[in-house]
Specification:
The chain is an alpha+beta fold. Helix content is 24%, strand content 40%. The protein starts with a strand and ends with a strand.
Amino acid sequence: MATGEVAVRFVVAGRVQGVFFRASTAREAARLALRGHAINLPDGRVEVLAIGPAAAVDELARWLQRGPPAARVEAVVREPVAQPGAIDGFRTG
């Protein structure tokens, strides 16, 4: 991680799979120049790892509260990540 960057793991619950949540999150992350991922979890939630400037991560956090138009976000849990490792770009899975 570069100096001045933060890494945060978000777990988003609600109707967030099958509604373009991951792809929309990737677009938002690219707009904010963030690195990380958005992946489906087996229990129907989506995990988002966001790495970058704190202000950009906070902006993504606000976006995650509502998500794309077809989503229905019920909860977003946020936790810091100490050492996410070397991650380039933003991937979905």
